[in-house]
Structure formats: structure tokens, C-alpha cells
């Protein structure tokens, strides 16, 4: 059976750059992007290595600003 | 491809004013999701309190009323008795519920009001600048306790859930935590249980959520999650303090 594969989408303008999602991601998918600021003035989170996402939802559960939408790729 | 997580319709599109990493936002999301999943978004009246969550009426996608400091359980009582078909909840911080509003919460529980109380305990007064609350831990620093809470001067931190569980009129009291995804899943189940008892007219329910205040605690957001796990949970043990016997 193929590994569970997720695709995280981030509403970047809602992000406050707190890093909670980065700290709980077991696969180091996420990172804070210090090369830009969002409209709120924060360094937003970005998807660093999306292919590693296992769709565990930890990021979405801890994010206080509900920025995440997570899709699950169907197993083949 | 299937969507396995998206923002609940129980929250509005308004961005919150909470500090980065403050778990008030997680508490809001869980309440919004539970109300959506129970199909109650058109049938719920929320009672906002005074504290950082004072603007929660902008964030919950249900009818909301703003209450005087500590009085949300009394306002909720009036609403629920007037329109008993509506689901009524309060959303209160520990300064609101455990200090100025101690009488209101005890007597709402005592009367067995059919309301659900969401009690966000971050062990400090966030909104006003990090002053000591009745719930501040022993030794914890606050702007009004610069060398840490001293039990000889201020008493030991008040355990509201244990206290309310002792009130005969209370039906369901559980303490959960928002510092880790695994615990957040459990917190949602407790909130669901609280609202379900209300729907079944089984009386007063209160869910205490241990929550962070990175700003008031003077900690970075991730360090605040760890501080909660290491310091709050040992003093405020998690679990069901009171529940009806299931039939
Ligand atoms: C009658 C009255 N007394 C005092 C205050 C000042 N005050 C505003 S919020 C607050 C406490 C907030 O703490 P908490 O309920 O723990 O909520 P948090 O901000 O930590 O979420 C106090 C004392 C007030 N607004 N009204
Ligand atoms: S769903 Fe899990 S693996 Fe994927 S980004 Fe979020 S925390 Fe990381
Ligand atoms: S937890 Fe949410 S707000 Fe914080 S950095 Fe991650 S996406 Fe941004
Ligand atoms: S002061 Fe504390 S409780 Fe208030 S929004 Fe900031 S972190 Fe949250």
C-alpha cells in the first residue's frame, strides 16, 4: 500500500508566524519564510518539503489562526 | 483527492486580534467545529465575557451577546430560560470566571442551568497586561507578582473545575489542554460532550481548557506550549471531574 500522502495549503495572509505548526510537524514539512512579510507584518509559514506530508493534521489542529486546508491524495 | 481539514463554518472570516501563538484561537476553532457538526450554527447564542476574548462575538459564527465582566453565566441563565430551545454557551477566561465572576459561575452550576461553559484557563490576566489571577501558579511571575506568586500572601491557585464538580447541580465537568495536537483532539471530544448534555437537557456542563498566554507569560509561542505541559498540567490534572452515569 502506498504511504499516506497529504497536501497542506496555507492561507498565508492569515498566518501570524508563531511557528506552532512548524514545531508539531513530524515530517519537517513546514518552515517560517523570513524572505517576505505578509500583510499583517509577520514572516509567514511556508511549505518547505510538501512531498513529505503524511496528512496527520497536527499543523491544522494546533494553528490558532486556522490557516490550514489539508487534502489527502488517494492511495493507489 | 479529498479535503480532510478545512476551516469550520462555525467561525467567521474575521481575523482574530489574538497574539501570535495564543491558544484562544484553538479554543475558538474547537467550539466552532462542534457547533457546526451538531448542526447548531443557526440555533446557538454565545455569551462573550471580558478579557482577551472580549471580541469573540466577531469570531463565532452564531448570535453573540457581550456580558459584563464575570456575569456571562447569569446572562446565559436569562437567555436559556427565556428561549430554552436555543443552545447557550459562555466563553470565559480565568480572570473572568475565577475572580470577579466566581459567584455567578458557582450559582449557575448550583441551579443546574442548562448551559455550557467554555472556561479558558491561561493562569493570568492576559488582556490587562499579565496581572496575577486566582489561577496563577505558585511561583509564577506576573506583573503584580514580580518575584512570583507567594502562597502565603495570595493563597494557592484556585482549582475551579474541582470546585464546580462538588456543586450538586453540575452535570459534567472536564479539564483538557490545548498544548499539543493529541490533547486538542481530546479537548474537542469534551466540548462535544458538554454541548450534547445541553441538547439532552441534562443540565450544567463546563469544560476547562488549559491555554497559553505567550505574551503575559513572557515566553515565545512554542516555549509557552511546553511551559503549559510542564507546569500547568501537574497542578491542574486533566480528566473528567464529574459526569452523569451513562444509561
Ligand atoms: C468590572 C471590571 N473590573 C476589571 C476590569 C479589568 N479587566 C479586564 S479583563 C480582566 C481580566 C482578564 O483575564 P482573563 O479573564 O483571564 O482573560 P484573558 O485576557 O487572560 O483571556 C480584567 C481584570 C474590567 N474590564 N471590568
Ligand atoms: S499534515 Fe502533518 S505532516 Fe503534513 S504538514 Fe501538517 S503536521 Fe506536517
Ligand atoms: S501555527 Fe498558524 S499562524 Fe502559526 S505559523 Fe503556523 S500557520 Fe502561521
Ligand atoms: S495577551 Fe495572552 S491571552 Fe491575550 S491574546 Fe495575547 S497571548 Fe492571548
Describe the structure.
The complex is a heterodimer of chains A (76) and B (247). The model of chain A has no long low-confidence stretch (mean pLDDT 95). Chain A has a single domain, classed as Alpha-Beta Plaits (2-Layer Sandwich). Chain A contains two helices and four strands; from the N terminus they run βαββαβ. A two-stranded antiparallel sheet of chain A has the order 1-4. In chain A, 13% of the residues lie in helices and 24% in strands. The radius of gyration of chain A is 12 Å and the shape is elongated. Chain A has 76 residues and is of the alpha+beta class. By secondary structure, chain B is an alpha/beta fold. Chain B has one domain: Rossmann fold, CATH 3.40.50. In chain B, 36% of the residues lie in helices and 18% in strands. A seven-stranded mixed sheet of chain B has the order 3-2-4-5-7-6-8, with helices on both faces. In chain B, helix 1 (24-37) packs across helix 7 (181-199) and helix 3 (94-100) crosses helix 4. Strand 4 (68-73) of chain A pairs antiparallel with strand 1 of chain B, so a sheet runs across the interface. The site of one iron/sulfur cluster has 12 residues of chain A, from helix 1.
Shape of chain B: globular
Main sheet: strand order of chain A: 1-4
Cα distance spanning the termini of chain B: 40 Å
Helix amount of chain B, in percent? 25-40%
Instruction: Output the helix-strand order of chain A.
Output: EHEEHE
Which spans of chain B of ≥5 residues are poorly predicted at pLDDT below 50? Answer: none
DSSP E strands of chain A, number: 4
- How would you classify the helix and strand content of chain B by structural class? alpha/beta
Main interface by residue count = A-B, 31 and 30 residues
User: Largest sheet of chain A at a glance?
Assistant: 2 strands, antiparallel
* H and E order of chain B: EHEEHEHHEHHEHEHHE
CATH superfamily of chain B: Thiamin diphosphate (ThDP)-binding fold, Pyr/PP domains
Helix content of chain A: 10-25%
CATH first level of chain B: which class? Alpha Beta
| Strand order, largest beta sheet of chain B | 3-2-4-5-7-6-8
Largest beta sheet of chain B, briefly? 7 strands, mixed
Bound molecules: thiamine diphosphate, iron/sulfur cluster
What is the number of independent domains of chain A? 1
Amino acid at each position: 500500500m502506498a504511504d499516506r500522502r497529504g497536501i497542506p495549503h496555507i492561507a498565508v495572509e492569515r498566518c501570524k508566524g508563531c511557528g506552532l505548526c512548524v514545531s508539531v510537524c513530524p515530517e519537517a514539512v513546514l518552515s517560517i519564510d523570513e524572505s517576505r512579510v505578509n500583510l499583517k507584518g509577520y514572516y509567514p509559514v511556508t511549505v518547505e518539503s510538501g512531498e513529505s506530508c503524511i496528512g496527520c493534521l497536527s499543523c491544522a489542529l494546533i494553528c490558532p489562526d486556522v490557516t490550514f486546508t489539508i487534502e489527502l491524495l488517494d492511495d493507489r | 483527492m479529498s479535503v480532510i481539514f478545512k476551516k469550520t463554518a462555525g467561525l467567521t472570516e474575521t481575523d482574530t486580534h489574538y497574539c501570535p501563538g495564543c491558544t484562544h484561537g484553538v479554543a475558538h476553532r474547537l467550539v466552532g467545529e462542534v457547533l457546526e457538526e451538531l448542526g447548531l450554527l443557526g440555533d446557538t447564542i454565545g455569551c462573550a465575557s471580558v478579557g482577551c476574548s472580549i471580541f469573540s462575538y466577531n469570531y463565532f459564527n452564531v448570535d453573540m451577546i457581550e456580558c459584563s465582566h464575570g456575569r456571562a453565566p447569569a446572562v446565559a441563565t436569562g437567555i436559556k430560560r427565556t428561549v430554552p430551545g436555543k443552545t447557550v454557551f459562555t466563553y470565559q477566561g480565568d480572570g473572568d470566571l475565577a475572580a470577579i465572576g466566581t459567584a455567578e459561575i458557582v450559582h449557575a452550576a448550583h441551579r443546574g442551568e442548562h448551559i455550557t461553559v467554555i472556561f479558558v484557563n491561561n493562569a493570568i490576566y492576559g488582556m490587562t497586561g499579565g496581572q496575577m489571577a486566582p489561577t496563577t501558579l505558585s511561583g509564577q511571575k506576573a506583573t503584580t507578582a514580580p518575584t512570583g506568586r507567594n502562597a502565603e500572601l495570595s493563597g494557592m491557585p484556585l482549582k475551579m473545575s474541582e470546585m464546580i464538580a462538588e456543586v450538586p447541580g453540575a452535570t459534567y465537568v472536564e479539564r483538557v489542554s490545548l498544548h499539543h495536537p493529541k490533547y486538542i483532539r481530546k479537548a474537542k471530544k469534551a466540548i462535544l460532550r458538554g454541548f450534547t448534555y445541553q441538547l439532552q437537557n441534562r443540565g450544567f456542563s463546563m469544560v476547562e481548557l488549559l491555554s497559553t498566554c505567550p505574551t503575559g507569560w513572557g515566553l515565545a509561542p512554542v516555549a509557552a506550549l511546553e511551559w503549559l505541559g510542564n507546569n500547568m498540567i501537574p497542578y491542574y490534572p486533566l480528566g473528567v471531574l464529574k459526569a452523569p452515569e451513562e444509561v
